[in-house]
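Justification of computing resources. Each target in the renewal requires a structure prediction run like the one illustrated here; the chain below, 214 residues long, is used simply to show the kind of job we budget for.
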Amino acid sequence: MLDTLIRETGENPTHAVIWLHGLGADATDFVPVIPMLGLTRPTRFIFPNAPVQPVTVNGGMAMPSWYDIYEMQIERKIDRAGIQASADAIAALIDEQVERGIAQANIFVAGFSQGGAVALYLLESGVQMAGVLALSTYSPNLDQPAPSPLANSIAVSIHHGTQDPVVPEVLGQRTQARVAALGCAVSYQTWPMAHSVLPEQLTAIGQWLNEHSR
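Resulting structure tokens:
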């Protein structure tokens, strides 16, 4: 199991959000956003730490990373084994929350940048959950054939910065099209920012979580 930080917005949480940080960050990265979301239901937040491993594009330097990044080009070779391992670890966290009494239909997976790619990969794997929040990220399956629709529609919210120099917004647009092909209820929002998050964006995220929480 991954090392995690746990925060709860109230007693006896009925919902859970598993939030994956980006490359080189850690589990503390998004803890401060919880009060800004304005959630209306008692929610357990699970912030996992990615494994520390060498990252090729950073000269092989070891850092928290959900998978290796071989090159920075838009069309590039993907570390599928690494993404699969991380997706399996997040699926195990979902199972753990179910065992602790939270219904799978009340569990969201959120991710920023590299963490969002893992969340989107998990979505295509058919794991059941309430929804996926994909921030400044891309589907790691963009080079794969068009997917078959999922058995059940899962809410997906994609956010992207129009000035993102790390993950170009065109990847967000292509990801939206791929997620729509899965039969998901997908929304797409852009923000005047680079590779980051904005306070007003967090308000919108909280509204989306409230709207899709049963």
